[in-house]
Amino acid sequence: MNMDLNVIIENMETGDQDAALMALQTYNKKMTQCFTFTTDEEEQRERLGELVLGFLKRDLQPSCQLACLETIRILSRDKNNVAPFITHTAMQTLSRHAGIAISHGNVDCEGGVVLVPFAENPDLEVIVEALKSICNICLHNKVAVQVGQDLQLIVGIAERLKQCGEDQWNHYVRFFDLRLMFLLTAQRVAMRTQLLRELRGVSLLSNHLDATLGLCWPDTFEVGRAGVEVDPDSEEPAELPPLSREKIERAMEILKILFNITYDANRREVDEEEAAAFRHLGAILRHCLMSSADAQDDTEEFHSHSLNLLGNLPLSCLDVLLMPKVQQGSIEYMGVNMDAVNMLLEYMEKRLDRGKKLKETMLPSLNLLTESARIHRETRKFLRMKVLPPLRDVKNLPEVGNALRNKLVRLMTNIDTDVKNCAAEFLFVLCKESVSRFIKYTGYGNAAGLLAARGLLRGGGNPGVYSEDEDSDTEEYREAKSQINPVTGRVEDEQPNPMEGMTEEQKELEAMKLVNMFDKLSRSNIIQPMMLGSDGSMTQMNSGDLRRMRDQIPQGQQLHLQTQLRLEPQQQEQQQEHQKEQQDQQQGSGSDDEGEVE
């Protein structure tokens, strides 16, 4: 192999176009499936890359151009050997062959950017190979990304995306245009901002997504598929034909770019124009959620990207999910079309049932449902009907069972903090942020984490702005309500009283033993005793709190159950003297020292 590469380099160095073409075609055929490279030939590969770039600056026949670019695509797979390709000159050469180099200082009659013309009839294979090479280089090298920013490559791509309705560009040109735009925006904040602001990226890419999916608009925020006829007499919703693999691939690239440039949209103020663009995009995303691909895996990935992007939109724009008219076969609740909300709920439950990577796969849909329920009364009531129907089962723990409520309550004790907090927040919103209702459906033990974080362990708090709901207590619940253990959330079997038969003094003795044990564990830093503060949140117990607990025991018991508490340094000497006096009293009276802390 080493000799072959040297021979290829020798043929390239002759400068003869035919000899170079034969040598490169041989190399490309042999290396077409090579994705790993040894360090032995780094110098030769670097030299070959320099020679190929030199050839591309010449006026070459199309077959030789294509062979040179194929070689660069193969060489650029080696992330440790892209040095020849990351200079401004090299990137400019490649972008010119890709048709995305812009003509600096020139504008068209409408003030737009002019692309550098490469040929009157551009060779699409040449364009695709150049785009693939630039993608590889930008994927492997941050310097190349900066050079791409300097050369304004994203502007050139955006100009070609505006031609999305023209048939001259095939799938591969469009796909790798989008792939390169994704790589650039993923790695540079400046390019994300430029695409969003200067190039009006949300509208540009929404229009491109619209054209890719072949959409039509029966109403302002109601989307259909062009060519799909709806039977008004059918009781089933119009079934959309599955999207082709090529359309799905391009659509997912668009969704990923949009995600990059809208990542902070729901955390900042948006003006009226931006809000309109986001709502238009939201309507398209609703259609994406209701669409499918030929392959199930593609459908799930498509829906996942759509959900991730929906989560970026300002909350005020999510009402577009409910705007389509109720039609035959639609899921209707309170006069509103709930098809999209029901799809989100089913999607979330499927990811929950799989139990894998819940944070990545389930949380986007669960967060979206939570925020939609918080701001839309109809959505909250529909979800409450589905997730928290009137309570009938009072014999089992809230986390036991296969109902969606049981599954979500189980998540409230998940080891992943984000997962458990999100599940608890969703149920809390469905309960209209009512502490008593939340405890009713989940049990105090499961609810304690969220309530403690919000300072609601004492109950009360501001329940937020929610509409009134009718009484949902079933007859079974009302009959058993007085017997339900609020901590576990179910009716417990009768348990024997462990203090039955004890005198009051014995009960006090056991209580003081418990205080002693807590204090020992606390002083050993095994546990940190906590108490409920006046504001409803948990606070650490200090030595003073434990002394107050001790002082509530009658004085006679304190003689038997002296507790050595951790004190502030300035109090230790006084406490030690006090302990010595008590020990002397005990020895003099002959009382036993059971329970005394050593």
TrEMBL record:
Subunit structure as annotated in this protein's UniProt entry: Interacts with some GDP-bound G alpha proteins. Does not interact with G-alpha proteins when they are in complex with subunits beta and gamma.
GO molecular function terms attached to this record: G-protein alpha-subunit binding; guanyl-nucleotide exchange factor activity
SUPFAM superfamilies reported in the protein's UniProt record: ARM repeat (SSF48371)
Origin: domain of life: Eukaryota
The protein's name: Synembryn
Known function: Chaperone that specifically binds and folds nascent G alpha proteins prior to G protein heterotrimer formation. Also acts as a guanine nucleotide exchange factor (GEF) for G alpha proteins by stimulating exchange of bound GDP for free GTP.
Keyword NAD: no
Biological source species: Salvelinus namaycush
Highest classification ranks of the organism: Eukaryota, Metazoa, Chordata, Craniata, Vertebrata
Annotated keywords: Chaperone, Cytoplasm, Guanine-nucleotide releasing factor
Assigned GO CC terms: cell cortex; plasma membrane
Bias type Low complexity, positions: 561-574
Family in the record: Belongs to the synembryn family.
One Pfam short name: Ric8
GO biological process: G protein-coupled receptor signaling pathway
The keyword Secreted is assigned to this record: no
